[in-house]
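Risk register update: the risk that structure generation would not scale has been downgraded. Supporting records follow, first protein first.
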Amino acid sequence: MATSQKRLALAVIDFLSGSLSDGTVSSEDTESIEIAKSCIADTFHVDPNDQAALKDAIGDQSLLSIYGVYEKLKGKTTTAPMPGATSSKSTTSTNKPSGPTPTSPEAEEFKSQGNKAMQQKDYPKAIDLYTKAINLSPTNPVYLSNRAAAYSASHKHTEACADAELATSADPKYTKAWSRLGLARFVLGDAKGSMEAYQKGIEYEGNGGSEAMKKGYKTAKEKVDEENKEGGDEDIERAASPRGAGGAGAGAGGMPDLAGLASMLGGGGGGGGMPDLGSLMSNPMFASMAQNMMSNPEALQGLMNNPRLREMAQNFGGGGQGGGMPDISALMSDPSLREAAMNMMGGGGRGAGRGAPQ
């Protein structure tokens, strides 16, 4: 049988024993747990009392902490306790490593070599060496944080962010990890997350935090404030524009499209087209309509879409059939046009002020 399978069996037995001692499993299930341990030991031919073999299997860690790293890498956030749990320890989120783990001489050697590679700016080599150290001690925050620094130096900020998050989960008091997490998040465009990471670092450093940590926090906060201001400005611009950026039936700044009105009434001028604007505005009714159109572009759009008005405009202004403005009384003899005109002038009750800004 493969040695790795025996190591895993020992790790499972250790996990079951720990579940009894820490209260994750109630004392009522003790007999079941002991039977399970015995069955695993017999099936995989391992001795759960062999401390040397157990240390070789999981080192100074536990199966739970190792699995916590896996869950963190997979983005899990499982927090539900196991059935029958009676201890407050059972409510601890399993996505977080149980804490920093002791190191081995071999892992420390890999870390030292990785540090030398970093000094030489050989970042791929440093990443490889830190990875070897992590393989020996997966939840060591120093190794994870160092590899995060190497990833950042290699412009692999997503990987740096993942390692830094693992490091802060393994040991929140290791403040370098918060600093490296803040940097990675900032470069990835998460200014708010960066600010939060630096804030955590300041809190764990105590005494107001180091200058480097405070500088990182300040930079991230300025970016957050800038983004909030830009978002607020865009909202104000959208609110100030009655139909977005101009819109149909409106010109710049929400002004009615007089060219469109001229076209609707028979063209842009000349023979058979729009009459002189001064003559048109001398009529009190049209003067009032124009004033209302200036403050209510949407009403102008509704008038332009009136099929009866379009038909009459074609009759008096299109196709070269003479020119000039039609008789106002002829226009107002049509009930629908009369109502539209009354609405545009602010009268007639139900049309008054419709769509106007408050």
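Supporting record for the second protein:
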Amino acid sequence: MKIVHVAGTKGKGTVCAYVDSILAPYRSHTNLHKIGLYSSPHLVAVRERIKINSKPISETLFTRYFFEVWDALEASAHATGADPSQKPVYFRFLTLLSFHVFLQERVDAAIYEVGVGGELDSTNVIPKPVVTGITTLGIDHVVTLGDTIEEIAWHKAGIFKKESAAFSVEQLPGAAKVVAERAHEKGVQLRVVGIHPALSGVKLSPNADFQRKNASLAIVLAQEILISCGHNPINENEKLPDNVIRSLEEMTWPGRTQIKSKGTKEWCLDGAHTDDSMVVAGQWLAGLSRSSVEEAVKHAELVSDVHGGAQKFVTGSLHLVGGVLSFMDDEETV
């Protein structure tokens, strides 16, 4: 199974979704017939975390494989004299479940989003991914990772593996230095990815530099998977193939700069939960409402109405956004 492993503070889920979308058209004429995606958190249903060919696995499959893993852990505990009631914590169990699902379903390639950090994350058991990627780094999860950008960068770059390709978007100087040092420490040739020049003509949503950075990283990560299959259809300096452009323009990632209408109201949903992300979310909202960034950020912090209640902005966490989506969808299931 060919694996893409992605860490970062901002945009790692979006990058994973872009990679999944870019690779989708190649399923019909390469040996990438089944592509898995493991991401977190989920918004409405836990099955969203484990996807095959861009769709959450069914309730039937989730239940079957859940109990296969559960029963295997119990059997192992009994065999070794351990306490069978002691199980891996929630995220670790789901990570273990994802590997089991993808192996049993004979997935050809899988895209893994790190949960927290990288070095000590439960996804970091992949001995030799095809490629690893680091998205924009910032301050988050300080209790676990540390309260400086350098400490956080050390953890994130822990996913680098010798003989695996490694990429990073451009970082703040302190983070860039640590990421480069970690790459050298692990014997990895790190390549820093700038914004792909062809993206100037691609209609990304939102149409912002941070999203172009995410898409640029996704392009090179997807390219490494395709190269490993004997294909190389994406040239970093020339026009992107039409199928790649369509994949980038049509990719949807619920809860991230998402606009959803219900009745006469339009909801703007984004899971921003750090200071930096709140500013970016505010810039996005400012562009939609034609207010100033300062006003938009203030609205975001207060989770208040915009334009007399005609438009609402929900931010603060993906859990909150997921709750809103669940409420808006009423009886609709994932």
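The two ends are 27 Å apart (CA to CA). On this basis the risk owner (M.S.) recommends closing the item.
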